[in-house]
Amino acid sequence: MSSNVGMSSCCLSGSVHNGTPSGRVEKVGELDTYIAEPESKSKAKTIIFLVDIFGFEFNNTRLLADNYAKQGFYVYVPDILKGDPLPISFLNNVEPPLKDQEQAGLIDKAKNTAIVAGTLGTWLPKHTEATVKPIIDDFIKHVRSVPGTSKIGTIGFCFGGRYAILTAHDGPTSVDAAYACHPSLVAIPGDFDPVTKPLSLAVGTKDSLLDDKSNDQIKDILDKKSSPTELVKYEDQIHGFALRSDWSSDKDKKAMDDAEKQGVAWFNKYLS
């Protein structure tokens, strides 16, 4: 039986990063999409970003897409939420950094729980797998048909992390390699048993959604695969660290940078 690992206030946490994205937005298939091109303009190594609940306009996501483009990848960030992300304001009032979490009282924790229940309780039913997966499948099909496109990878964060894992299953819309950072709402073993494509995972040891027991279960499943897999743990990192780390913390900034390097190395190996 599969067990689902849910979504909590961690999914609404993190920091907004400064910087001006250098890509552009245009319609790709049926979706508004942020595009970050490599200097060569080559689509030979294409990556599709599958966003978290803050959507494709989130500054952190676009800046990270730009970073991957600088490494030679052609990057698409499609609006898989179709104009219905959660507001960025939640980053500032829900789920503080780890050091503040450890000092939080019961009242603060109860407040966070209530905010999450009120927010996600109405949002998640509008973005179920039955709704989101066909959107992603159609986008992958469209990108496959774009002239010059060779191999395709997916990278997903939190909400989008699970869908990156699903694209590593065998099927007409599977990709050549996938990378999931702190995925939420995963089913263990259900989402991992069908994996047949190269899959990399980045998880934090302080992630309230994927504890060590869950990660060890996932690793045991992946270690039995004939396809390449890896699960990398980042010490003292909470949910969302690979996209929303607090850059004022050297340790957290390094973890985010290392998670980016993990993805770049994975895609260089399996999209080449």
UniProtKB/TrEMBL annotation:
Domain Dienelactone hydrolase: 31-271
Protein known as: Dienelactone hydrolase domain-containing protein
Listed PANTHER family: DIENELACTONE HYDROLASE (PTHR17630), PROTEIN AIM2 (PTHR17630:SF44)
Organism the protein comes from: Dipteronia sinensis
Example of a GO MF term: hydrolase activity
